[in-house]
Structure formats: structure tokens, C-alpha cells
Specification:
DNA-binding, homodimer, 3 strands, elongated, Multidrug-efflux Transporter Regulator, Chain: A, Domain 2, mainly alpha
Chain lengths: 159, 159
Amino acid sequence: MSYTVGEMAKMLNTTPSTLRYYDKEGLLPFVGRSVSGIRMFTDTDYEWLQIIGCLKKTGMSLKDIRKYIYMAMQGDDTIDERLQLFLKQKEAVEKQLAEINETLDIINFKCWYYQTAKEAGSTEVPKNMSLDEIPEQFHAVREKLRRPNKAETYEQKVE
Amino acid sequence: MSYTVGEMAKMLNTTPSTLRYYDKEGLLPFVGRSVSGIRMFTDTDYEWLQIIGCLKKTGMSLKDIRKYIYMAMQGDDTIDERLQLFLKQKEAVEKQLAEINETLDIINFKCWYYQTAKEAGSTEVPKNMSLDEIPEQFHAVREKLRRPNKAETYEQKVE
DNA sequence: ATAAAACCTAAAGTCAACTCTAGGTCAAGC
DNA sequence: GCTTGACCTAGAGTTGACTTTAGGTTTTAT
């Protein structure tokens, strides 16, 4: 079973131009052509493109993705290299996850902050609350947002 | 307590150029200047920059961040708008989290795949394994990677 | 048989977010 | 007082990842 660039683009929820661009950049050396020069994508190519999409989503550059594709094209000699790449990528993605969770904490704090401000009619209310008026889950976030340096030595603020 | 652009850049783990660029783009209308025109960042500015960094990390464009800053500068009339913005951003980030978790599944599968290939000396081994030879946790991922389109969608295939 | 739609390439254009350069001013240490 | 390093602006340049355009060929539908 094979697909044209337009069909494959639809299956991947992208555009033909993007796939041609990837091809031009050397990311799709596995894609075959018909006698008249038209790209013929297979189900296996679809799998490759899913992997490419996965790596891209986790922030890998097209250049690095190309390196991986080249490795794979070289065959079994590069198995370990590829394993290392995915192990490294796993680390990177786990770090990303942790970071996004941290920013989610900040966003949740801000939601509470503006919810409170809305009820009170002014941002001065949440802004000036002392820690014991704030839900505990937000204590750490507020401290982190305020402290210009991470040293916990002292934190006197006088204006 | 006030800081120069270089000091603030260090505190935020960025560069002076980036901060000047943000300023030029209108993201930092709150930053004051000394008599001689030098930017003077305060602790409050640091908090703003943390929020900007948070929004940026979750993929918000500088343009949209500027909109938010402008809202905030307008005062209490925009509290609800800002609340809505953060609620929307919360949704977006939760979706991001789900997506990253999905790609992490794929990466974990690939780690297992290449680990298995390494032990066997060839990618043919994991590639040709039947589902019951594969750890259950990877069943769903492998199916997803392989299936060119969902069962319910109809898509004509060229042969 | 012909028109429309989908394919092809090469090359130029776009966009966001920086990053660097040039030319100059200001402030701290010797 | 002088040097050095940090600051300033305006504007040009860079990078990555597309996207569009122009000009042409092939496939599909009527």
C-alpha cells in the first residue's frame, strides 16, 4: 500500500510542502519514487514519520533528527548509538516534564491570584496577603517568584 | 534594591541583549531609568520577568505576553481578562503535558526496542516480535506507530 | 480530449526570537 | 585624569522551520 505526498500529509496532519521540505533537508532518504518521479510513501515510511514527529515535538532540531535517520539507514552497526540517543532524549523529556509542571504551579497560583483579585475587586488584596492567608499549595511558588536570589539566608523587604 | 541590565540578566540566566530586546518590544514598560538613561530593575520587575519567563516556557509568543503586560498596566479593570488568560493558559499547558507524556511513551518504547536490538545484535529481532513477546506497556504504542489511520476514518489508499 | 487537480523543483519570502555591530556615553578602579 | 568595562540606541544579520511562488509535468475526472 502506498500513498502520495498529499495523502501522507493528511494522515500526519501536516502539509505536502512540509513533507517535501523534510525530504529536501535529507530527513526522508527512505521515500521511494514512481517512474515519473512522484514520491511513493509506504506504511513503513509512515512509521518513520511518526518517530520524526515525536522527536520534533520534544524539541529536537531537524538537523539532529537527520543524524538519527542517517544512523538508522546505516544499519545494525549504529544500534548502540541510537539507543544512547533515545536514552538521552528520555532524560531531556523528563526534564521538560518537570519544568512544565513547575510552570503549571505558577499558572495555578496566578489563577488563584486573579480569582481572589476578582472577588475583592483589586489585585492589591492577593498581592498584600500574608502567607497564612494563602492556600499552602501556593506558598512555595510565591516565595520562588519573589526571591531575587536563591540563597535562603535572609529575606527582608522594606520599601 | 535595584539592578542593572547585566545583573538582572544573570539573575534570570539570560543575556542583557535579550532583556533589551524585550524592552524594545514593549514587554517591560515597568522598568525605570536612572537620570543618565540606564535601566534600573527592581525586585518587582524581577517578579514580572519570572512571569514572562513562565509564559514563554509554555509557548506563549512575545506578542501575546505583551498584551498581558499591557492589561496588567491598565490596572484593576482588566482583572477578569487576566484571569481568563491564565485559565486558558492552564488548559493549554495541561494539554502540552498530556502530549509530552504520550511522546515519552514512544521514547520509552524506542529505548526498549534498541535495547532489545542491541542484545540480539540486530533490529530485526524487536521489529519482528509478535505482540506477546513485547512487554504489555508497549503494546498500545506499537499499534499506534504502525496504524496508518484510525479504524473509523475512511481513507482511500493507492496501490 | 481536455480541464482541473495534484504532483515536481528551485528559489525566494516569511516569521519569531534573538544576536551582533557600530558608534557612542557613563561609572568605577587605579 | 585615564582606562576599562558596562551601559545606551538603531539597525543589520542570523537561525530554524517552514511557506509561497513560478514554471512545468503527470494523473484523474468528465
